[in-house]
Amino acid sequence: xxxxxxxxxxxxxxxxxxxxxxxxxxxxxxxxxxxxxxxxxxxxxxxxxxxxxxxxxxxxxxxxxxxxxxxxxxxxxxxxxxxxxxxxxxxxxxxxxxxxxxxxxxxxxxxxxxxxxxxxxxxxxxxxxxxxxxxxxxxxxxxxxxxxxxxxxxxxxxxxxxxxxxxxxxxxxxxxxxxxxxxxxxxxxxxxxxxxxxxxxxxxxxxxxxxxxxxxxxxxxxxxxxxxxxxxxxxxxxxxxxxxxxxxxxxxxxxxxxxxxxxxxxxxxxxxxxxxxxxxxxxxxxxxxxxxxxxxxxxxxxxxxxxxxxxxxxxxxxxxxxxxxxxxxxxxxxxxxxxxxxxxxxxxxxxxxxxxxxxxxxxxxxxxxxxxxxxxxxxxxxxxxxxxxxxxxxxxxxxxxxxxxxxxxxxxxxxxxxxxxxxxxxxxxxxxxxxxxxxxxxxxxxxxxxxxxxxxxxxx
Length: 460
Description:
Oligomer: single chain
Number of domains: 2
Number of strands: 17
C-alpha cells in the first residue's frame, strides 16, 4: 500500500522520495503474505523503502528526484546468503570430489596455512562480492580468518555483511597458538566502531569437534555481551556425530545446548544429522539453521531435514557454503536445488515449494541472522536492498507465477540492477564500486601460484 497520505488535500503528493522504481512487471515483496504486485513500483527515501504499491498510486503520492522505468523487469528483495566463507573463492576447484574430513585435513587446511593472509582474504572476499552481487545477493553471513580484511572488501563493494571471526582450538592463519584465539576475537571486535552498520561483526566457533566446551562458552558469552550473532557448524557429517558422542556422550546439538550456547542469536550451519529431539531443542532455544544443499550434496554429507525443522518452528535460511565446496555462490541455483532436492528426499512434490525456497533466501534468511526487522522483504521502513531481474529472456517467458519463475527458471545472470541501502551497486549487470578486471587478473595470478606450490589440477 502507498505510504501514509492522511492530512493532505486531493491531488497533493504525500511527500518526497529520492528514487522511484516504477512500471515493474512484477514486485515480489517477500512480506509475510508473499504479495505479488503486477505493474508495481517502489519509492525509496535515503537508505529505506518509503512505499510500495501500484505505479499509478506511487506516482500520484510521491514526488521523486530520480526515476527508473523497469518495464520488463521483476523487483524483489536482495537475496541473503546465510553461510559462506567468502575468501575461499581463491580455492574454487582446488580439491573436488572428496569427503568432508579428508577434504578439510588433506587439502583445505594445508592450503590455508600456505596462502591465507590478510591480503588473500581481502582479494578472495572481493572476488566473492563480485559473484554475489552480479547474481542478486545483497547480504552475506561469513565465517573465516582475518575478517577485518573481509570487512574492508564488504565496505568497498557496497554489500551488507555479518562477518564472523573464525575460532578454533589449534593454530590458524591469523593466530599462531590456540591460546591466542580469545585475544584475536577481542581484537577483531574492537576493530568495529559499532554493531549496527551495514557491515557487522560476529564470532564463528568452527565446530564442536574443533572447539572445546570452554572455547564455545567464552565465545558465546562474548557475543551475548556485544549483542552479536554467534555462529558454528553443526552436525554436518555422520563422522561428527560419532566424534561428539564419543567425547561428550551427547549428540552435537544436545552438547551445544548443555553448554548454554543455543539461543535466538545462534546460527548453526548445515544441521544435517539431527535427531528429532535435537530439532525440538533447536526450536525451543530459538536457534536457526543455515541450509546449504549444494555443498552438502557435493561433499556427500547428506541432506538437512528441512521439512521437520520448519514444522518444528526452526528458522531455516539458505546458504551456499564456500566456493571451494559448492563451487559457486549463486543463491538462484541454490533455491532451485533446495526446492527439488527435498521433493526427491521426501518423495513428495509438495515438499519445499517454490514459495518456501524463496523465503529461505529472503525473509527467513534475514531472521536467521537476526536482521528480519531491517532486510529480507520489500516493505516500508526496511532497508532498500532491492534487485531487478530482467525477465525479457526466453527461459523466463511467459510468467504465470513469478515466484515459481524466480525459483525454477531464473539462474542469476538476469540480475540487471542491485540497490543496497538505496544506493545503486550493480548497474545493468556491472558492479559499480569494484574494478572487476583487476580482481579477476589478480585472482588468476594467485591461482597459478597456488597450483605451482600444491600441484593442484594434477589429480584425476
